[in-house]
TrEMBL record:
SUPFAM superfamilies: (Trans)glycosidases (SSF51445), E set domains (SSF81296), Glycosyl hydrolase domain (SSF51011). Monomer. Pfam families: Alpha-amylase_C, CBM_48, GlgB_N. GO terms for cellular component: cytosol. This is 1,4-alpha-glucan branching enzyme GlgB. PANTHER family: 1,4-ALPHA-GLUCAN-BRANCHING ENZYME. Its EC number is 2.4.1.18. GO terms for molecular function: 1,4-alpha-glucan branching enzyme activity; cation binding; hydrolase activity, hydrolyzing O-glycosyl compounds.
Length: 737
């Protein structure tokens, strides 16, 4: 419950501010500075009062330059007041002097509020969908002056001030107006513009001054290790991506080719001196590379502001600010636009599952558990030593939902991959008995998080058709990628963690033992269409001692490369959208580290170049053959041809779609060539080999079928006899005459 604050009388009988008010303003403890400072009525006239440390005399002027009064110093700390020759209340400018010189300043307390009653209503209701236009720091013109409007939510604070280099980081200088119905504090500070660092100085409900807080809605931040927010002009980029956006607005993502290149922007490449590439430099290098390699989308690991490089961005303190590591926010807009013009979508990793407890961040923001739960059994994450958002609080849900809408609107991103969804859905996630609190129904499901995810997805899909959401969800929670109105969470897609785990486990086995693990491959098709799946070979699999994908493959070096190529073709032929982490497309040998660039010199070596060429060709086939993508999420697009040949570790299936020729995918996961191997096919005639991962051009042994096989009818069955190269996947496309 919010405690009422005492507001002193504006003036005494003589028009002077009460001494207690003067002392409180100078000390920075007054509960309502707008009742004292600025232009105040005094009898039939007006007085002006201001707090300007270091000044010895002050003259008041209107904004048009008319002199309207001299102010006397009531307190040596810098409190001035004096009568004005004004007929109506209006903003003032002051000419301040001391022994060292003079300066001009505009009085922020002579301006009215910027936010209005409708803002209060929708903010309090938690239904405001344009909070990013109201909260944070906005450069505006207000009542005849230019400056920055600051607004922040801190309902339990006794006092909130905006501090920065413009006021010597002195919290007494710019205490904010408390909009008591919403807990929003606001202040228009004239005469400052873009590029000014700032934070909020907050006095908690117990009267204790908190560590300075960055702005939760900051649109720009300082480069770490500095942690201040920075005033910024709104994005001014002139977009040229309407064709790209129109395509995806009218497309069904499930039936389009979606091949995602996962990128950590800070380590894909670096400058020669080890510094980060700017967004413009990344655009000039990364976009052409992705186009050449054939991916349809770039997915960035979190690029919002974060203080600690080894967190890879997952411990974000600035959800609304593209990281200063890569330049200004407009640079990111230019990158996205450039990608779109080249036909590449941009997906962002988004982290509403937890937030770090850095003292300048959201933790105990106003001296209370505001964004998080007060009880650590709900508000603290044992895996990451982070706080957990209070999804039962409408203001917190609104903060997060607005952030999702912000990236879609302001930066035209094509999708959000939501991190660690499983940790949000279960109250007992990574917790032992007694370390968690059941929901109101006695269960382990986090019903508040479910409601939040459903609302986020409804708002994103409702306001931004063409933008997709993808859940990293590792459990069997039902209907993750089903619509909310059908009882689902509302995501467009879900990562298929089972595919990743089972296949990597299979390929780590020596080929002679794979016949005993045949089910690792076939089991995934039991549930392959229960969700709209993305098949992820992500950063999580190539860090923390796990090695690289190449190193996970069993056998000697030749077998590792052959198996990896066969694995990729198997995956690109498998139902589901594709995701591959950077460096794995050319078989990076060293485990990934955020502290160094990828080993690009490996592309000079034949086997590594061969893996890259395999991925490039697979992406081309995936995009150009409707059979390989048009029914990725529907069982009608898949049928087994060979499912039970565990003795030879051979698998074969058919991919099909209404508007393309069928494609047969055949994998031989032993180093033994299988000659005269019979594969059933649905149609008699010629089937053209469209890829063979054992081709010499890829670094393979060059065994194959001279580019074509003939399927013949034998009674009621149709089949082709062919050579299956060692450790290979081949694809055959029906080629009617």
């Amino acid at each position: 419950m919010r405690k009422p604050r005492v507001t002193a009388a504006t003036s005494g009988p003589d028009g002077l501010a009460p001494a207690g008010d003067v002392a409180a303003i100078v000390a920075g403890t007054h509960g309502d500075p707008f009742a004292v400072l600025g232009v105040q009525e005094a009898g039939k006239g007006f007085v002006a009062r201001c707090f300007v440390p270091h000044a010895e005399s002050i003259t008041a002027y209107t904004l048009t330059g008319k002199k309207v009064g001299e102010l006397s110093r009531r307190d040596d700390g810098g409190f001035f007041e004096g009568r004005l020759s004004l007929r109506k209340r209006q903003p003032l400018r002051y000419h301040a002097r001391n022994a060292g010189g003079d300066w001009w300043l505009t009085d922020p307390y002579s301006f009215g509020p910027v936010l209005g009653p409708l803002d209060d209503y929708y903010i309090a209701e938690g239904s405001h969908l344009r909070l990013f236009d109201k909260l944070g720091a906005h450069l505006i013109d207000h009542e005849g002056a230019s400056g920055v409007h600051f607004a922040v939510w801190a309902p339990n604070a006794k006092r909130v001030s905006v501090v920065g280099d413009f006021n010597e980081w002195d919290g007494r200088r710019h205490p904010m107006r408390d909009r008591r119905d919403t807990g929003i504090w606001e202040l228009f500070v004239p005469d400052i513009g873009a590029g000014r660092p700032y934070k909020y100085e907050i006095i908690g409900p117990d009267g204790v001054r908190l560590p300075l807080k960055a702005d939760p809605f900051a649109f720009r931040s300082e480069l770490r290790p500095a942690t201040a927010s920075v005033t910024a002009l709104p994005p001014a980029h002139e977009w040229g991506d309407e064709a790209h956006r129109n395509f995806w607005r009218n497309a069904d993502h499930r039936r389009e080719a979606v091949s995602i290149y996962e990128v950590h922007a800070g380590s894909w490449q670096l400058n020669d001196d080890g510094s980060f590439l700017s967004w413009d430099e990344l655009a000039h290098r990364l976009i052409p590379y992705v186009v050449d390699t054939g991916f349809t989308h770039i997915e960035f690991m979190p690029i919002s502001e974060h203080p600690y490089d080894p967190s890879w961005g997952y411990q974000t303190t600035g959800l609304y600010a593209p990281s200063a590591r890569f330049g200004d926010p407009d640079g990111f807009a230019r990158f996205v636009d450039g990608a779109h013009r080249a036909g590449i979508g941009v997906i962002l990793d988004w982290v509403p599952a937890h937030f770090p407890v850095d003292e300048h961040g959201l933790a105990k923001f106003d001296g209370t558990a505001l964004y998080e739960h007060a009880d650590p059994r709900k508000g603290f994450h044992p895996d990451w030593n982070t706080a957990i958002y209070n999804f039962g609080r409408r203001e917190v849900v609104s903060f997060l939902v607005n952030n999702a809408l912000f990236w879609a609107e302001k930066y035209h991103v094509d999708g959000l991959r939501v991190d660690a969804v499983a940790s949000m859905l279960y109250l007992d996630y990574s917790r032992k008995a007694g370390e968690w609190i059941p929901n109101d129904k006695g269960g382990r499901e986090n019903l508040e998080a479910v409601s939040f995810l459903q609302r986020m997805n409804k708002e994103v899909y409702g306001h931004h058709p063409g933008v997709m959401t993808i859940a990293e969800e590792s459990t069997s929670w039902p209907k993750v990628s089903q619509p909310v109105h059908e009882g689902g969470l509302g995501f467009g897609f879900k990562w298929n963690m089972g595919f990743m785990h089972d296949t990597l486990e299979y390929f780590s086995k020596e080929p002679i033992f794979r016949k005993h693990h045949h089910n690792d491959i076939t089991f995934g098709l039991v549930y392959a269409f229960s969700e709209n799946f993305v098949l992820p070979l992500s950063h999580d699999e190539v860090v923390h001692g796990k090695g690289t994908l190449l190193n996970k493959m069993a056998g000697d070096d030749w077998q590792k490369f052959a198996t990896l190529r066969a694995y990729y073709a198997f995956m690109w032929g498998y139902p589901g959208k594709k995701l591959l982490f950077m460096g794995q497309e050319f078989a990076q040998r060293r485990e990934w580290s955020e502290a160094r660039a990828l080993d690009w010199n490996l592309l000079d070596f034949r086997l590594h170049r061969g893996v890259w060429q395999t991925v490039r060709d697979l992406n081309y086939l995936y995009r150009s053959r409707p059979a390989l993508h048009g029914r990725d999420c529907e069982p009608e697009g898949f049928s087994w041809l060979i499912v039970d040949d565990s003795a030879n570790s051979v698998f074969a299936w058919l991919r099909s779609a209404p508007d393309g020729n069928p494609v047969a995918v055949i994998s031989n996961f032993t180093p033994v060539p299988r000659d005269n191997y019979r594969v059933p096919l649905p149609q008699a005639g010629k089937w053209r080999e469209i890829i063979n991962t054992d081709a010499a051009d890829y670094g393979g042994s060059g065994k194959g079928n001279d580019g074509v096989v003939e399927a013949r009818a034998d009674g009621a069955s149709i089949s082709a006899t062919m050579l299956l190269p060692p450790l290979s996947t081949i694809m055959l496309e029906f080629a009617p005459d």
